[in-house]
Amino acid sequence: MSNEVNYMQQRITINLNTDSKTTDKTTILEYCRSHGIAGIETPCGGKGTCGKCKVTVTKPYCKDVLACQTKICDGMEIIVGRKESTGTKEDSMVVLTNGGSISEKFNEHVNEHVNRNVVLNEETANESEKAESNEDTLAACDIGTTTVVCYLIDKETGQIISTRSGANPQRSFGADVLSRIDAAARADDNDKANGGLQMMQTQIVSLLNGWISEMLTECGRTKVSRFSVAGNTVMCHLLMGISPEKLGKAPFMPDEYFGREFNPLDIGLENCQTMIIFPAVSGFVGGDITAGMMETVNCNELTLYLDIGTNGEMALGKGDRYVCCATAAGPAFEGAQIELGMPASKGAVDKVWLEGRRIKYSVIGNDRPVGLCGSGLIDALAVLLKAGIIDENGTILSGQELPILFRSYVFEVEAEETAQSTELSLAVHIAPGVYITQEDIRKLQLAKGAIAAGIEVLFKEYGCMPCNIDVLTFAGGFGNYIDKASAAAIGLFPQELLDKAKEVGNAAGNGAVSAALSQEAWERALEIGGNMRYIELASYPHFNEMYVEHMNF
Asked: Cα separation of 139 and 161, whole Å?
């Protein structure tokens, strides 16, 4: 199941005389952050390098500007976001709340995999009676770098009774965890409440408070007895108001590994009695991985677990022995570093394929194509490789080297649209107005090379080969939608694992639900976390050589 997150158009008027949070040195982005205004995409974290935070200023001048680079002034009028159904990048984002039908998948798991220590009854109790007992209602949440999903659960039946999902509001501080680590470290000594860490904590806590309150009211409940949270290590630090600054520099050791109970009131989380946060293994392999593995990995099958979202985390093992690692690969695959990259929202090219001598594509929402999301980018790479438009080094061919059938697809990018290097002057048409540049391909090669090299390291450390793998599991929204054949074709994972690949949807969210319901599931997650050995790729012998080798196709 997936939901769409709409960024509604907002008109804002700045009044410096009545706004104590704002000065004439404040940028539009800083203003929107401090006032809880969503709809501005800043993959680069507000450094002015991605060009994707454009807003429209209608007064005192009328033009589009970069929100992170433009100072406000008294009386300034700004339009943030876009009208719905325009086919623009900010319209809506597809958020994966589960891999399939929630009730069917949930009941199947209850019956076959986890003893949640609850009795599944055909008849439900009277709703007014449920409302009087706080013990009957549970909640679970998967806090991702890009999106957040929250569930309300009936403890007696084990059923999810309400769901909320949306974009992580912290995205205004950057698309990846490194950007947010940097933002959290830039606290304002004169105004702690507006420091990066405090603002990001306020954003996520406010979102969860609003959702939980809405769901409780919707279902006639009063309070959550147990709230289970899965998230990567940085997201959990930000939730708890703990600085993740140490994760931005070697040896990347977190201040908190979680894996225990917390008091929700300590962070201002209302209507919850207790909160548990899944254990992290390292600074970059967090509780979302232990939650997902607890939910999906069969102890008797050697499993390669991949979660390629905004960050790239992977684990390998079975029984009581696992190895894991992480790469900073995801932002490119999610479109954050790509010229016409975008989230999986209306107008995104999500599939690309060859049909005879033509490149064909599909668009989310059957709308006008305006960019490429992650699944479309991987397909596009596979198609360019198959068509002979790029060579094994990822270079766009030209002239006589280019197959005559596809010469019309290759063109020169205008100087202002490309990087400084003369090598990066070619691009390939994918859809009307949508293309992929040489620089884009290089960034995607870096991302896929890091993941493929990470997988090779796991094989070496576990002492196995691809032929020994029983299951290749893709978790998360990105893994749920990518074409596995395209991913194998570009070398994201070994070709011989293609027939063993399967997607498990929002495994971290499902794991969080399981742990909310079952002490046994929670203890299994703690066990997996304790049995997992983290490998730091940055210091791994010969990793750079493996990385470079896997960049090629």
From this structure: 10
Q: Are 224 and 150 within 8 A, CB to CB?
A: no
163 with 145: CB under 8 angstroms?
no
> Which H/E stretch holds residue 183?
helix 177-185
3-class SS letters over 207-249? HHHHHHHHHHHHHCCCCEEEEEEEECHHHHHHHHCCCCHHHHC
End-to-end, the C-alpha distance of the chain in Å comes to 33
| Residue among 414, 403, 405 at smallest CA distance from 437 | 414
In the block, which residue shows the tokens 């060579």? 391
Q: Which distant-in-sequence residues (6+ apart) come within 8 Å of 500 by Cβ?
A: 469, 470, 471, 472
**Alpha carbon of 150 to those of 158, 198, 212, 462, 483: distances in Å?**
15, 22, 8, 35, 27
Taking the model in full, what pTM does it have?
0.81
> How many Cβ atoms are within 10 Å of 15's Cβ, its own excluded?
10
SS3 300: coil
Question: Are 54 and 67 in contact, with CB atoms under 8 Å apart?
Answer: yes
* pLDDT for res 193: 52
The type of residue at 537 is: L
* pLDDT computed for residue 464 by the predictor: 97
| Tens digits of residue pLDDT in 306-349 | 998 777 899 999 999 999 999 876 667 777 779 999 888 889 99
Helix ranges, 308-437 (H): 330-333, 374-387
What are the beta bridge partners of residue 79? 11, 56
Mean pLDDT of the chain: 85
The reported pLDDT for the residue numbered 123 is 39
Angle between helices 374-387 and 438-462 (to 10 degrees): 100
Which residues are within 8 A (CB) of 329 and not within 5 positions of it... i.e. 6 or more apart?
Answer: 308, 311, 312, 446, 447, 448, 450, 451
d(CA 508, CA 266): 24
The answer to whether 96 touches 58, Cβ cutoff 8 Å, is no
Residue 324: closest CA among 360, 297, 353: 297
What is the distance of C-alpha 226 from the center of its chain?
Answer: 25
Estimate to the nearest angstrom the gap between the alpha carbon of 374 and the chain centroid.
Answer: 11
DSSP output for 17-35: TT-TT--TT-BHHHHHHHT
Amino acid identity, position 399: G
- Report which of 98, 112, 169 is spatially closest to residue 140, judged by C-alpha positions: 98
C-alpha to C-alpha distance for 492 and 302, rounded to whole angstroms: 19
**Distance between CA atoms of 363 and 368, rounded to whole angstroms?**
7
* pLDDT tens digits, 486-530: 999 999 999 999 999 999 989 999 999 999 999 999 999 999 999
The pairing of beta strand 371-372 with beta strand 348-355: parallel
- Cis omega (within 30 of 0) for bond into 251: yes
Cα–Cα distances (Å) from 122 to 62, 157, 158, in that order, read 61, 8, 11
CA distance 150 to 275: 14
